[in-house]
């Protein structure tokens, strides 16, 4: 079965319907239909998307949406962002304020989404996911924000969640 990263993510979202918290189980079910090599590739693509979204502006948006956002919270928020699919992910990278159009994303953290990848691989192969060769940044990209400036940076999010 050939796949694209975003096709798998979109199918997981579609299969979960309105219940975004069920996306990890849906993702795992889809991944179990792939080969071990395809799951490894998906995992690597996923880790690259997490890195790409490791940005101060997106952290600021998550901070407004969730009413605060710790380091771990931002990790899990990026899991949710990826689970929303390519168009929402790309729009958020271009303009984090675009997330104001989404409903029901307060406290949207989806830590289990990343674990579903490892679980699918382990269930399929009986082994742990191999280490990836991805270099993880020590700091988010971009300029660090001050909490007092977030409303100016993201007026739509501030209006909705501020």
In short, what is this structure?
This protein is an all-alpha fold and 162 residues long. The protein has helices at 5-16, 23-31, 36-52, 56-66, 71-83, 86-94, 111-125, 150-153, 155-161.
Keywords:
mainly alpha; 0% strand; 162 residues
Question: How many domains, in number, for the residues?
Answer: 1
**What's the gyration radius in Å?**
16 Å
Relative strand content: under 5%
| Residues in helix, % | 55-70%
The global form is globular
Count of DSSP strands: 0
Biggest sheet layout: none
Spans where pLDDT lies below 50 across 5 or more residues = none
List the helices and strands and how they pair.
Layout (H helix, E strand, L loop, with lengths): L4 H12 L6 H9 L4 H17 L3 H11 L4 H13 L2 H9 L16 H15 L24 H4 L1 H7 L1
Structure notes:
The protein is 60% helix and 0% strand. It has 162 residues and is mainly α. It has one domain (5-131, 145-161). The chain is globular and about 50 Å long. The N and C termini lie far apart (45 Å). The mean pLDDT is 94.
